[in-house]
Amino acid sequence: MPNSTETYREHLPVHIFEDALSLAHKIANHIGSLIRERNSKDLNTVLGLPTGSTPLDVYKELIRLHQEEDLDFSRVITFDLAEYYPIEPDQLQSYYRFLRENLLNHINVPSDQTHGLPGNLSESEVDQWCHSYEDKIREAGGLDLVLLRIGRSGHIAFNEPGSSKTDRTRKVILDSITRKDASGHFFGDDHVPLHGITVGVGTILDSREIVLMATGEGKAGIIRRAVEETINEEVTASYLREHPKSAVFLDRAAAGSLTREQTPWLVYDVEWDLEMAKRAVIWLSERVGKAILQLEEADFHNNRLYSLVYAYPDIDELCLTVFDDLRRRIYYQNQLPSNERVILFSPHPDDDVISMGGMLDKLVRNNNEIIVAYMTNGSVAVFDADVSRNLGFIEMCLQELGITGDASEAFRSNREEILSFLAKKAPGEVDLPAVQRIKSAIRYSEAIAGIEVMGLDQSHARFIDLPFYQTGRIKKKPVGQDDANIIIDLMNEQNPDHIFVAGDLSDPHGTHRICYVAIQMALEQYNKARGVQGPRVWLYRGAWQEWEIHQADVFTPISRTEMARKIEAIFKHESQKDRAMFPGAYDDREFWQRARDRNTGTAEALNRLGLPEFYGAEAFVTVYSL
Question: Which of 131, 286, 293, 538 is spaced 20 to 30 A from 280 at the CA atom?
Answer without folding.
Answer: 538
